[in-house]
Design a protein that fits this description.
The structure holds 2 protein chains of 2 kinds.
Chain A lengths: L1 H39 L1 H12 E6 L6 E2 L5 E13 L7 H11 L4 H13 L6 E7 L1 H9 L7 E10 L7 H4 L2 E3 L17 E3 L2 H5 L1 H5 L3 E7 L5 E8 L7 E2 L4 H11 L5 E7 L5 E7 L5 H4 L4 H9 L8 H4 L9 H11 L8 E3 L2 E4 L2 E4 L7 E3 L1 H6 L3 H11 L1 H10 L21 H8 L5 H8 L9 H13 L10 E4 L2 E4 L12 H16 L18 E7 L6 H5 L16 E8 L6 E7 L5 H23 L10 H6 L10
Parallel strand pairs in A: 2-10
Antiparallel strand pairs in A: 1-8, 2-3, 3-4, 3-5, 6-7, 8-9, 11-12, 11-21, 13-16, 14-15, 17-18, 19-20, 20-21
Helix pairs in contact in A: 3-4, 9-22, 13-15, 13-16, 15-18
Chain B lengths: L16 H7 L2 H21 L8 H20 L2 H29 L6 E2 L4 E2 L1 H18 L3 H5 L1 H20 L3 H18 L3 H19 L4 H11 L9 H14 L10 H4 L11 H34 L3 H25 L17 H19 L16
Antiparallel strand pairs in B: 1-2
Helix pairs in contact in B: 2-3, 2-13, 3-15, 4-5, 4-7, 5-7, 5-8, 5-14, 5-15, 7-8, 8-14, 11-13, 13-14, 13-15, 14-15
Classes of the chains: A alpha+beta, B mainly alpha.
Protein name (chain A): Penicillin-binding protein
GO molecular function, one term (chain A): penicillin binding
Subcellular location (chain A): Cell membrane; Membrane
Chain lengths: ~650, ~375
């Protein structure tokens, strides 16, 4: 028995040692695995662990400011208080909201939305209850804080336009990023981030946007922030200084505000700086910052006076008689007419079996170039345009900046239209008709221009250089702001003598007796302006109307069939500095409606200039009285 | 071979109680206390530096368990031999009872509430099975072990509770029971080719057995085979555990500084994944130290077994040591992504009262074997065998 037992024991010992060896191997395997994970692969897992726990959050940079040329704020960032609720910090979300509702109005819809959002998110994620609290509301909520567990008042930034509608079209507005605007820049995906949607805000969006800061926070598996590890503040956007003069801009808006729909531009003829750019009616860009209401949006879209459109750059109008300088200059430059060559105006011109009327029924009699502009005689232009031809006229128009983009730093600029024979052939597939040259010569028919183009044309006539308008003092690129080199615009390649003749004729319009714009002249010595009126037809005057009722007066027509009133001018006559154009949609006569506005704007621009140079405007004769002086009854050309 | 009794005073192997306490393996007690101490520290860390809710309760359980362990240790080994079958049948009946109760309760029911204590019959079975098998093979000669009919009762003794536990369903415990049973068979001298045969049959049966697995058990196996397949679902646990361990590096991130554990990326950090937390906070050095302590305890078990003069004690010693080893191996291999997640805790370290009790009771038995190593017991089990 004993040896058997020792047999059994020996067997046991052998088996136990084998088993123990097996366990040793397995434990060694565990150790090896541990070594592999913790030494060989450690770096990889370290990275993975950091990726787990560290969450990078973007800090939206403050948007760059926009100021006028003297530093007056035009677009700023306002502290914006919003109130948020954290579900886990309040015993009863609904009850807290109901108490809050008694302090600041929320309404049942908001309470329901917040309650739903809060239930859906993780308990520690704040849900916005209301945006844009007034300081008063913030104070009231703060006082009642003990009754409002889980509520947080948070300060953010939102865009604010202190001038409201005054610069709506130029500045544009910002609004939340839409799906198709996402570029992959993670900043755009931040909730509540806004980008420029129109105007300067859009054109210079990248420069104004700045660069995002980052905050590294440690989060747990549920995404709850445990602590901030590192914070790097972003760079705020660049400040963009506009060429606009806020005071002149305000005055321009005020001056247009009597009209249903109008646009005006004032610019410096030497450097192309736009001092005022206005389109009336306007809208309040602040309404867009936090999401515009459906109702307000619809009312803006459906308004017949198109408040959303910047008519100064997006509105195209037949320039009417303001185009006559182009035609005359084209004739002079081509040597086809001489300054003193006269044509007889008997009130109309017949071409084939069509009759082309002058705006003055009885005709102007013998007209030379100077008088044709001064009196805005149509027949003179019917005569000379046949000799010059449409293509030469178009070439001169292009030289003066019509028919092509001015390159202004605003979105959606329209280039208007200057027709040529080729253009008609290609676009309409028809041959150019001789009569169409006649129509074009008085700025009607196919010819279209924006108020900004007309202002540019005037500036070029006044300066003799190919001036281009711009809106910012500095060169603004997405990379930043660099000061603009004094821009030397190229010469126009037009004889100085001929330009002087045109300017003299424009002087005749306003400053010579019986000039069409004499009533809108500036009667202050040294500040006089030279200009040209334009009244462009938007309807066809039939032969039947002429024969029966006579040409209907604008006041007898519905608004949208009335003529557009235009006026362009530069001042001072002797040493030009400013150019201005005004278009009053369906406003009637150019010299009676648009002229006085141009006069006031150019006068204001000069007065401001003098005032800023320390020469008090009070030293000058009272301009208001002089302005009211009715020289003679305004005559409006057709 | 006469009386089926021995009386205190008449028993030549009787050792006075004071002497037994002196004979107690205090080194082993110290090792066990050290392991448990590591457990307390990790539970303290898991609660972000608080004794609540885990560390304090674990300490109390350890205190009770350690007392029980010593009582068991100083109890004569022959008492445990006599109680072997009895405890096995009690455990089996309780398993059947939870099975029935579980059916009524319409869910996985593994507990019996005894009012003061939540008894888990499967844990009791882990010890009882070792005892019962040791008792059975103690009574067999080497030749007997070679007779297949005599192997059928012990095989049934393993399969019956395994089947019941598998139905609960508790795959981890089932594996522990079968492996623990297999160890006893092995030590008793069952031929290697028989193991090979059973293993081969088992492998062949895998496709059939697969159909009986619950969906979550199937998922665990599939996830183990390809964890990247489902990184946010079932594979999340393994992936996060590996990240935690790997990012711990050589020396770890420091006590209570494990980001994976403390930011809750690591699941079940106080129970099944506590080794991961240790590895993250104390690195390879800490992990190796713990592994070393376990290796020492296991080696101790072998020493006790080899020095024991009776077959029952030897089988029990290696049996409980092997169960202990299996816990350690399965748990650590699982958290390192070597085997599927099977829900086996790390003995003495993981939070949990029942497992703590099981382990301490089995160490009590191991120490009882050690104290009473010189007692010779006949095959019949109730005699000193010297006549």
């Amino acid at each position: 028995m004993w040896h058997r037992d020792s047999d059994r024991f020996r067997l046991f010992t052998r088996r136990a040692l084998m088993l123990g060896a097996g366990k040793g191997v397995l434990l060694t395997g565990l150790a090896a695995r541990m070594y592999y994970l913790q030494v060989l692969e450690s770096d990889r897992y370290q990275t993975l662990a950091d990726e787990n726990r560290i969450s990078h959050r973007l800090l939206p940079p403050p948007r760059g400011l926009v100021t006028d040329r003297f530093g007056a704020p035009l677009a700023v960032n306002r502290q914006n208080y919003h109130i948020m609720i954290v579900r886990e910090q309040t015993p009863d979300v609904r009850r807290t909201l109901e108490i809050l509702d008694q302090i600041i109005e929320l309404g049942p819809d908001t309470i329901e939305r917040v309650e739903r959002d809060a239930a859906r998110r993780r308990s520690f994620v704040p849900v916005t209850v209301r945006d844009n609290l007034t300081w008063d509301e913030v104070a009231r909520v703060g006082v009642n804080a003990p009754d409002l567990p889980g509520l947080i008042i948070d300060a953010g930034r939102s865009r604010d336009y202190p001038e409201g509608p005054h610069l709506a079209h130029t500045l544009g507005y910002v609004a939340a990023v839409s799906e198709k605007e996402l570029t992959g820049d993670p900043l755009l995906e931040l909730p509540g981030f806004t980008i420029g949607k129109s105007g300067v805000e859009k054109v210079y969006d990248l420069a104004l946007r700045g660069t995002a800061g980052t905050s590294q926070v440690e989060v747990n598996a549920l995404g709850r922030v445990i602590r901030e590890l590192e914070r790097e503040e972003g760079d705020s956007g660049n400040t963009v200084v506009m060429t606009l003069d806020l005071e002149l801009q305000r005055y321009t808006n005020q001056r247009l505000s009597d009209q249903e729909s109008a646009a005006a531009v004032v610019m410096d003829i030497h450097n192309g700086e736009v001092l005022a750019l206005s389109s009336h009616p306007a809208y309040d860009p602040n309404a867009f910052t936090n999401g515009i209401s459906h109702k307000l949006w619809n009312s803006l879209v459906n308004n017949p006076y198109a408040p959303l459109s910047n008519k100064a750059v997006n509105g195209t109008y037949a320039p009417g008689s303001t185009f006559k300088m182009c035609v005359a200059l084209a004739g002079l430059e081509a040597g086809i007419i001489s300054p003193n060559q006269k044509f007889f105006c008997n009130g109309h011109l017949d071409l084939g079996n069509a009759r082309f009327h002058c705006w003055k029924r009885g005709g102007h009699g013998w007209m030379n170039m100077h008088d044709s502009i001064k009196h805005s005689c149509d027949v003179y232009y019917y005569e000379i345009s046949q000799k010059i031809g449409i293509d030469r006229i178009a070439a001169m128009a292009n030289k003066l900046g019509l028919g092509e983009d001015t390159g202004i730093d605003l979105p959606n600029e329209r280039s208007g239209l200057i027709p040529t024979k080729d253009w008609k052939e290609i676009q309409l597939g028809k041959r150019w008709q001789g009569g169409e040259t006649l129509i074009a010569s008085i700025g009607q028919g196919y010819v279209l221009a924006t108020p900004l183009q007309l202002c540019t044309m005037t500036a070029r006539l006044a300066s003799g250089k190919a001036v281009r308008p711009h809106l910012t003092r500095d060169n603004v690129t997405p990379e930043g702001v660099t000061s603009r080199q004094a821009e030397e615009f190229p010469e126009l390649q037009v004889s100085r003598a001929n330009l002087a003749r045109i300017r003299d004729a424009m002087n005749g319009v306003t400053n010579e007796l019986r000039g069409t714009g004499h009533g809108a002249r500036i009667a202050i010595k040294g500040m006089e302006m030279a200009g040209k009126s334009g009244t462009s037809q938007v309807r066809r005057i039939t032969m039947r109307e002429r024969q029966t009722t006579g040409v209907l007066d604008n006041n007898d027509l519905p608004w949208k069939y009335r003529d557009h009133a235009l006026f362009v001018a530069f001042a001072p006559v002797d040493n030009p500095r400013y150019a201005c154009s005004v278009v009053v949609e369906h406003g009637g006569g150019g010299s009676s409606v648009a002229g006085p506005i141009v006069r006031d704007l150019l006068l204001k621009a000069q007065e401001l200039q003098s005032a800023r140079q320390g020469i008090s405007a009070a030293d000058q004769p009272n301009s208001a009285n002089l302005r009211r002086n009715p020289a003679h009854t305004d005559q409006d050309e057709g | 071979m006469a009386g089926s009794r021995f009386r205190i005073g008449e028993d030549p192997d009787y050792v006075p109680i004071g002497r037994r306490l002196l004979l107690l393996n205090w080194t082993l007690v110290l090792l066990i206390a050290a392991l448990s101490g590591i457990g307390f520290a990790m539970l303290y860390s898991a609660a972000n530096g608080s004794l609540q809710p885990w560390a304090e309760r674990q300490m109390m359980r350890f205190a009770v368990g350690a007392a029980l362990m010593i009582i068991i240790a100083v109890t004569d080994i022959r008492v445990w031999l006599k109680l072997a079958y009895f405890s096995y049948f009690v455990a089996l009946i309780l398993l059947v009872a939870v099975e029935i109760k579980g059916d009524i309760g319409m869910g996985a029911q593994r507990w019996i509430n005894l009012g003061f204590f939540q008894l888990q019959p499967s844990e009791l079975m882990k010890i009882s099975l070792v005892l019962a098998l040791a008792r059975y093979f103690h009574g067999l000669t080497t030749e007997d072990v070679g007779r297949i009919p005599l192997l059928i009762p012990p095989i049934l003794m393993v399969l019956a509770p395994s089947a019941l536990v598998l139905r609960q369903p508790d795959l981890g415990t089932t594996l522990l029971l079968i492996a623990g049973g297999g160890v006893i068979f092995w030590l008793a001298g069952v031929r290697i080719w028989k193991f090979a045969l059973v293993l081969g049959t088992a492998l062949a049966a895998i496709p059939i057995g697969w159909q009986f697995l619950r969906e979550y058990q199937k998922n665990r196996v599939l996830t183990f085979l390809n964890p990247e397949n489902d990184p946010l679902g079932a594979g999340y646990h393994i992936t996060q555990s590996k990240i935690a361990l790997g990012s711990g590096g050589l020396f770890g991130k420091g006590f209570m500084l494990g980001s994976q554990s403390h930011l809750n990326f690591l699941p079940e950090k106080q129970t099944d994944f506590i080794f991961t937390m240790l590895g993250e906070e104390f690195g390879l050095v800490g992990g190796m130290a713990l592994l070393g302590l376990y290796a020492l305890v296991i080696t101790y078990g072998y020493v006790i077994a080899l020095r024991c003069q009776n077959q029952f004690g030897r089988l029990v010693a290696i049996g409980v040591t092997s169960t202990f080893f299996l816990y350690v191996f399965i748990n650590i291999a699982m958290v390192m992504g070597l085997i599927p997640v099977v829900g086996v805790p790390l003995p003495l370290v993981s939070y949990g009262g029942t497992v703590m009790m099981t382990i301490l009771v089995s160490f009590g038995l191991l120490m009882s074997v050690s104290i009473h190593r010189d007692i010779r017991i006949s095959r019949q089990g109730n005699d000193d065998g010297r006549n």
